[in-house]
Amino acid sequence: MKAVVYTGDNSAEYTDVDSPVVQDGQTRVGLSFCGICGSDMHAWHGHDERRVPPLVLGHEAVGRAKDGPYEGHLVAINPLMRCRTCPSCQTGDEHLCASRELIGMRVPGAFAEEVAIDSTNLTVLPEDVLLSDVALAEPLACALHTVHLGQAALSVPLPDARLVILGGGAIGLLCALAAQYYGCSEILIAETNPIRSKILEQVTQATTYNPLEGVPEAAQNCDLIIDAVGSAATRSASSALVRPGGVIVHIGLQDNLDGLDTRRITLQEITFQGSYCYRDSDFALAVDLLVNKTITGAGWTEVRAMADGPQAFMDIDEGRAWPKIILNTVP
Q1: Are 53 and 16 in contact (CB under 8 A)?
Q2: Contacts of 91 (CB under 8 A, 6+ apart)
Q3: Is the link from the previous residue into 126 a cis peptide, with omega within 30 of 0?
Q4: In the sheet that 162-166 helps form, which strands lie side by side, from edge to edge?
Q5: Cα(258)–Cα(232) distance, rounded to whole angstroms?
Q6: In which region does residue 205 sit, left (phi positive, over 0), alpha (psi from -120 to 50) or beta (all else)?
Q7: How far apart (Å, rounded) are the C-alpha atoms in residues 62 and 76?
Q8: How far apart are CA 251 and CA 174, in angstroms?
Q9: What is the pTM for the complete model shown?
């Protein structure tokens, strides 16, 4: 079958690979769409030791089940595999399972014609759904989880909070849409790419600013910051911009360097919360919002042919792409 294969640092090829081997309890899914995630870019840059080339990346996927209990049905794929028996899995924190992993890490991912995954990771979709939009379920689940964590830690209701999002890529944009869904209306997004800034102001209710040109007064002393970049610079900005008693939720994974002002965080009792992946309930809500078109990819996603995958990685890297490129995995 055809696939986009990560072959080494800053390198990918559209080529032939072996079809997936289906294990007991798994379903073979004929894939239709798969989005390119920031973590795929992280691997493509050679910055993720867990992803060893040659490897088929990709985990934001939808398609049609070719066998198993949902044979013939359109399905959304929850790519997060876990044991389902440990205390974390039993208490609804499946994303904290010690044996968790995503497809596209140790096992082949979804930039391909087919993938094999546990049948319990599939959600059946209606036939009239806009399937390319539902490929956004995984990143939207991440964004919803981030907003849920921020809500839980805030001392004020989210609709009354001022939110600053650092980074206007797909996760930052989806965090804005998720916050809007919960009634937050005062949202600012820091973004340096003018293409993304224009798109953000068209598809969200947020105000954008370029942090390289200064930080507006409205972004300072905010209630909640979502760091969707995860760099030393954005951690430093988070530490400075959040109000005393405020909340920082850190979802970006660009680097693992310094940046946090731990003295200010301590003295001002600022909550610093990590956010990784999502609960099953977050994923279910994401699918529902996309199926019902409460949240859509209109105006900020671009669908490209799978054969264009290697070029798409380069366009994202060089800042020429929209916030989300989704590959049509049907050759």
Answers
A1: no
A2: none
A3: no
A4: 207-209, 186-190, 162-166, 222-227, 242-250, 271-274
A5: 5
A6: alpha
A7: 5
A8: 12
A9: 0.97
Q: Which residues make Cβ contacts (< 8 Å) with residue 198, sequence separation at least 6?
A: none
Name the token pair of 14.
């559209």
Residue with tokens 């991912």: 109
Report the C-alpha gap between 103 and 58 in whole angstroms.
7
- Cα(62)–Cα(328) distance, rounded to whole angstroms? 10
- Strand bridging mode 26-35 / 55-56: unpaired
Close Cβ partners of 46 (under 8 Å, ≥ 6 residues apart): 8, 9, 10
pLDDT in tens, the chain (331 residues): 999 999 999 999 999 999 999 999 999 999 999 999 999 999 999 988 889 999 999 999 999 999 999 999 999 999 999 999 999 999 999 999 999 999 999 899 999 999 999 999 999 999 999 999 999 999 999 999 999 999 999 999 999 999 999 999 999 999 999 999 999 999 999 999 999 999 999 999 999 999 999 999 999 999 999 999 999 999 999 999 999 999 999 999 999 889 999 999 999 999 999 999 999 999 999 999 999 999 999 999 999 999 999 999 999 999 889 999 999 999 7
Q: How far, in Å, CA of 81 to CA of 102, rounded? A: 6
